[in-house]
Amino acid sequence: MDFTRGICLVLLNAGSNSLPLTVKLGFSEQWGVVVSGEAYVSSPDGNGGRAKGVGDTLFVLKRAFLVDDATAFGLELGAKAPTAKDSIGSGRADYSL
User: Fold this and answer.
1) Which one, of 41, 37, 71, 72, lies nearest residue 57 by Cα?
2) What is the rounded CA–CA span in Å between residue 62 and residue 80?
3) CB of 32 closer than 8 Å to CB of 22
4) Are 93 and 80 in contact (CB under 8 A)?
5) In 3-state terms, what secondary structure has residue 3?
6) Listed residue (35, 41, 55) closest to 12, CA to CA
7) Quick check: 43 and 50 in contact, CB under 8 A?
8) Cα-trace Rg, the chain
9) What are phi and psi of 10, to 5 degrees?
10) What does the pLDDT look like over 70-91, one tens digit per residue?
11) Is the Cβ–Cβ distance between 76 and 61 less than 8 Å?
12) What is the C-alpha to C-alpha distance for residues 37 and 6, in angstroms, rounded to an integer?
């Protein structure tokens, strides 16, 4: 048995699998945006099958407050859009600060 192929089969048959996707855009040293999510998800559906599709999408606005050349602190405002099917994602929007 090919050991590498065996590991792949175990990973594909156990739990959820996904293809994460993240895009980051910095407008300046202080401001930036991150868009992330799962381009593809395969997850057990509870009936012996698998639910497949696109995952939820997260949008984050980031602000850095530069104190000096070596010190900074930041603030992030996030919103998750329920772009996945209910069997894959949470089915509702979430917000974070």
Assistant:
1) 37
2) 15
3) no
4) yes
5) helix
6) 41
7) yes
8) 18
9) -65, -45
10) 999 999 999 999 998 887 888 8
11) yes
12) 28
Q: Are 80 and 57 in contact (CB under 8 A)?
A: yes
Instruction: From residue 49, give the alpha-carbon distance in Å to each of 9, 14, 40, 70.
Output: 16, 12, 16, 52
Q: pLDDT (tens digit, 9 = 90+) per residue, 33-54?
A: 999 999 888 888 778 888 888 9
76, two tokens: 């992030």
* Rounded CA separation 24/33 (Å): 6
d(CA 56, CA 20): 11
Amino acid at 24: K
Q: What's the pLDDT score for residue 71?
A: 93
